[in-house]
Amino acid sequence: MSRSAELAALIRDRAGTEAPRLGLILGSGLGHLANQIDGVAIDYADLPGFPHAGVSGHNPKLVIGTLGNTRVAVFGGRAHYYENGRSDAMRLPLEVLAELGAEGVIATNAAGSLRADMPTGSLMLLSDHINFSGLNPLIGEPTDRRFVPMGDAHDPGLRTALRDAARAEDVDLHEGVYAWYSGPSFETPAEIRAIRTLGADAVGMSTVPEVILARFLGLKAAAISTITNMAAGLSDEAISHDHTKAMAPLGAAKLEKVLTRFLT
Questions:
Q1: Which residue, 10, 30, 117, 177, has most beta carbons within 10 Å?
Q2: Is 52 annotated as a binding residue?
Q3: What is the DSSP pairing of strand 22-25 with strand 104-113?
Q4: What residues bind a purine D-ribonucleoside, as annotated (predicted)?
């Protein structure tokens, strides 16, 4: 039995055998959303191979239960490339999600805005992404499955449903391209000018590896950014991780409304 199958069996023993329809990955400062789930929480420490909490603002628990009227698997924290030099750090959790029978995953993150019309507290639905880091979580995968097409990496159906949910909740949901920067240092003003020239609307240190892995595993994927700051050189804000955590709640309340409506 594979490690993902063993972990899926352990999770079913704890949380029941009904398959979650979707997975949710919560970004920095958004972990409290897991508290809205009516279900069973399992510490990552009880799931061998799951990432440990390496970043403050994340809540390292897997919560299986209901949000809206949909059964979900909520990952209260993620591992990042900058923590250990592994861009495939979220592969096992997503393999487990697929093993549990989920159809797709929605990732959330905290991001910096490159657009004046998308200030702190805004939400941005990812229409596409730029792998500015050049890293890839499928490097080393020995099979031809590694050649994953990414034309519709951000699933059109999920994006339409999320737009509809935002409209129903009267939440302004921007849409744009997210650029993945490896971190952990923040970007320089020159790097921000470069990725803006390339077509990016927001920048962050996560999510892209998870979308690639999701598509590799046959899961549909979508993602929403909570804008916690203007990117370097675009405002007088003092950018820091503490600032990110402090600003995340501004968008989190709106994100909670959108996700709850979407899942209902």
A1: 30
A2: no
A3: parallel
A4: 187, 229
